[in-house]
Design the sequence.
């Protein structure tokens, strides 16, 4: 693989892992529970389960792709399939943010706009890497 694609692969996997790690702390950082009445304990637990499972899956898959990077960059189809899946996750996230259900601008417009730009940028970078994988696999 070309050196630029290798670097882009690592950048996308590391950013994805950092987002997964960051998501473990999002509920406390943004005080999600302040918006929910305490009598809705089932809702709070459901939100926690969803967030923690999402965080673990995103972080774990991204770290796994970092560890297996040499195999992916050597065009190991199984590892590339996992990268494709992560790409689909980020493209879906970008579509949600851009077209389907944009993040509300209130209470912090900069956060909403930042998430939109970041998710779209990461999705585009991952699509570029995925397309390069597809082309390289066809040549192989």
Sequence:
């Amino acid at each position: 693989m070309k050196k630029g694609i290798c670097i882009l692969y690592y950048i996308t996997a590391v950013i994805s892992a950092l987002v997964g790690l960051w998501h473990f702390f999002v509920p406390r950082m943004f005080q999600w529970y302040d918006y929910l009445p305490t009598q809705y304990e089932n809702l709070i637990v459901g939100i926690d389960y969803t967030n923690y499972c999402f965080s673990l899956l995103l972080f774990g898959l991204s770290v796994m792709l970092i560890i297996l990077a040499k195999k992916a960059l050597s065009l190991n189809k199984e590892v590339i399939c996992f990268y494709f899946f992560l790409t689909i996750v980020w493209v879906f996230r970008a579509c949600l943010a851009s077209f389907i259900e944009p993040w509300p601008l209130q209470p912090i417009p900069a956060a909403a706009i930042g998430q939109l730009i970041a998710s779209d940028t990461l999705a585009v970078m991952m699509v570029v890497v995925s397309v390069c994988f597809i082309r390289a696999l066809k040549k192989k």
